[in-house]
Amino acid sequence: MHYRVIKLRDVDRPGPPALVEAVNRHREAIREQGHEIFGLFGALLGLATNEIYLVTFGETNLNLKLQKNIEVANDWTLKATARPTEHTAAQDPGVYVFRWFSVRPQTISEIVELSKNAWPDFESSFDTQVQGLFVEDVENPRTMLLLTWYRNLTVWEESRNPPNNARENFIRRHQLTLNALPIATSLLTSDTTHLLSHR
Fold first, then answer.
1. What gap in Å lies between CA 16 and CA 19, rounded to an integer?
2. How far is 197 from 17, CA to CA, in rounded Å?
3. Under 8 Å between Cβ of 151 and 94
4. Arch. (CATH architecture) of 2-196
5. Longest pairwise C-alpha distance within the chain
6. Rounded to 5 degrees, what angle do the CA atoms 168, 173, 177 make?
7. Per-residue burial over 15-42, b = 16 or more CB atoms within 10 Å of its CB, e = otherwise
8. Residue 191: pLDDT band with limits 50, 70, 90
9. Tens digits of per-residue pLDDT, 143-175?
10. C-alpha closest to that of 188 among 40, 51, 75
């Protein structure tokens, strides 16, 4: 199963409503190409106010033809590792953190195992759930993405002090990464898009 993470940018407006509307107009075309939308995610920390992440999953290529004021700022094709094991759309309100890792290809398997070992204690200690751990779908991948849901930003902050087993695995994982970039977002719905545009 392939996942696409597409960063869309509205070059004419400062907020996300037009981006969401544009994606909604293409929902049927996306489905016809064999993809489903996992979610649309707007800025809390790390994305510009006129950018969103569109995340889809499917077995085929995906081509979007968007109007001129909307540009594709970045586009990643990823494949799932240990998670997700079921491919369904995101539904829960809260904070979705996209943590991008730069890695060496030979360390990916160990990073996946360390993550799997840490998740049970981590998730049982906080109101959080790992949505997926993905790797760039190229011959020698150097990018990974960890997508984690938190009930709110307070939980995200509290989770910086995980239980010992999880902490040990996370420390070792950190040692294997070249750098990490966390982006905090919220799941965009018809109720939240208007609010985000005024933050």
1. 5
2. 7
3. yes
4. 2-Layer Sandwich (3.30)
5. 50
6. 150
7. bbbbbbebbeebeeebeeeebebbbbbb
8. low
9. 999 999 999 999 999 999 999 999 999 999 999
10. 40
